[in-house]
Amino acid sequence: MQRLWSWNNAWFRWSVASLVVLLVGSMLVGFVWLPSVHSDFTAKSLWDSICRAAGVPTTWSDANTPEKRPQSTSVVLERSMTRVSENDQVGRGATLALNCTMCHGAQGMSTSNAPNLAGQYPEVVIKQLQDYKGGKRSNAVMEQLASSLSNQDIEDLAAYYAYLPKARTAPTTYDEQLPALVRVGDPLRNIAPCISCHGGVDQKIGTPWIEGMPKDYLIAQLEAFKSGVRRNDAQSQMRNMVRAMTRDEIAELASFYAGKAGAGEHK
Ligand code: HEC
Ligand code: HEC
C-alpha cells in the first residue's frame, strides 16, 4: 500500500500544488491588488505595496528612496500665519525686500523667470523661505539669502508681499474654460483638480497663488516635483499627482496658469 505522505501519492502532490497556488493567489490579492485599488494608494513599487499591506510604517519602506531621505518640510502651517498684522511689519518688509527686487521685481512682479511674489499668501512666503533656510527646498541663491533672514524678517517680508496687489491676475473660477485637469483632475490617476487647492475659489492653506506666474517657472517646479528634486510639499501632495502627469499635460497646465497674467486687475 502507498504511504499517504509521499510524493508518489498523486493526492499528496495535488494537495501540495493546490496549497501553493492558493497561497500565491491570496498573496497577490492581499499585497498587490487590494492595496493598489485603495483611493489613497501612493506606492511606487511592488515592494511598497507589500510593505503597505503588511502594515509597515511608510517611513521604513521609503527610507531607501533617495527622494524621501530628507524630511520634506518642518514648517507647521498655522492659521495665524495667514493674518498680516497691523503694525509696521509691511514697512519693515518693504525695506528688506529691496534685496529681492533684482529678481522678483520692484513690485513683486518678476520680469525674469523668478516667481512673482506680489499678493502671494503670507503663509506661503513664510513656509517657502523657512524651507530654503532649512535646506528643505534647494536653490543656491534662495538658500543663501534665506539663511541670513531671521524669523521676524521672514514674517515681515511675507506681510509686505501679501500687501502688494495680487500679481495683477484674476483668480481661477469654475465659470471659465478650464483644462480638464484643473477642473476635475483625473481620479483614475489620483490627480485631484488643481482648482480644489490653488487659486481664488478654494484655497487650501499653504497652497501658493500660481496664476500669472512665469510659464518657465511653473514648468520647472512641476518637473522638479515629478523627479523628486523638489520635495518640500507636505505629505507629497504635489509629487504624488505630478508623477502621473505627462510632459504635455505639464506644459498645458503651465501655459494655462501663466496665461492668466494680466487677465484681470485683481486686488
Ligand atoms: C538672484 C535672484 C533672486 C534674488 C535676489 C531673490 N530671489 Fe527669491 N527666488 C529666485 C528664484 C530663481 C526662485 C525660484 C527658485 C526655485 O526654483 O526654487 C525664488 C524663489 C523664491 C520664493 C518661493 C516662491 C514660490 O512661489 O514658491 C520666495 C518666497 C522668494 N524667492 C523670496 C525672496 C525674497 C524675500 C528675497 C529677498 C530677501 C529673494 N527671494 C531674493 C530668485 C531670487
Ligand atoms: C491637494 C491640494 C493640491 C492640489 C490638488 C494641487 N496642488 Fe499644487 N500645490 C499644493 C501645495 C500645498 C503646494 C505648496 C507645496 C510646498 O509647500 O512647497 C503646491 C505647489 C504647487 C506649485 C509650486 C508653486 C510655487 O510657487 O512654489 C505648482 C506650480 C503647483 N502646485 C501646480 C499645481 C497644478 C498644475 C495642479 C493641478 C494638476 C495642482 N498644483 C494641484 C497643493 C495642491
Automatic annotation (TrEMBL):
Lineage top rank: taxon: Bacteria
PROSITE patterns, alphabetized: CYTC (PS51007)
Domain Cytochrome c span(s) in chain numbering: 88-165, 180-261
Listed transmembrane segments: 12-34
Keyword annotations from UniProtKB, A to Z: Electron transport, Heme, Iron, Membrane, Metal-binding, Transmembrane, Transmembrane helix, Transport
Matches recorded under InterPro entries: Cyt_c-like_dom, Cyt_c-like_dom_sf, Cytochrome_c_Oxidase_Subunit
The protein, known as: Cytochrome c
Organism: Pseudorhodoferax aquiterrae
